[in-house]
Amino acid sequence: MSINNTQSNETIYTLATISQALECSSVPEVMTLRLENIIRVKTSEWKECLTEIGEACAVKWVINNTNKQPTNITAEEAKATGIKLCFSQEYSCHRWGTYESKVALRVVQKRTKKNKCPALLRVKGFFKTPEFYEFVVTKDHAEHTPGDMRSDICTLPLAKKYLHELAQQL
Ligand SMILES: [Zn+2]
What we know:
This protein has four helices and eight strands; from the N terminus they run ββββαβαβαββα. By secondary structure, it is α+β, with helices and mostly antiparallel strands. The protein has one domain. The strands form two sheets. The chain has a six-stranded mixed sheet with strand order 1-4-8-7-6-5, covered by helices on one side. A two-stranded antiparallel ribbon has the order 2-3. A hairpin with a 6-residue loop joins β2 and β3. The longest helix is centred in the middle third of the chain and has 15 residues. The radius of gyration is 18 Å and the shape is globular. The N terminus is likely disordered. The chain binds zinc ion. Zinc ion binds next to loops.
């Protein structure tokens, strides 16, 4: 693993290690996948990793389009025809109503005005690198911070305490 090299992260994350690709967000106990930060995820575990990222980051990613890439051609055929992508799917942020209402119903009632969040996460697979898929958040959340219902309960000093504890564990 190349921890020092953040410019080109060549780590292929698995379900066991995917949390290492995430960073602390401004909300305690909620992680975030940095905008425009391309990460590689083991092909066989990409769906589980996406679920894990959603849970860790308090974001429910819903399919925005469907994969239109050819799935029935070989890598050789793809190369011959200049096709690079074997998989491409886009997910958008769906604000998690039930998750929020459980934590702070009163606050949610004020906020559920169905503002569409523009956040996007793209998953791409390439014929030349079948061992991993690429994940990247291309647009950030707007008008809400994922998991911020907890920040209504936890104060900022608590957030700092959590980060401090996390730093000591590393
Ligand atoms: Zn969002």
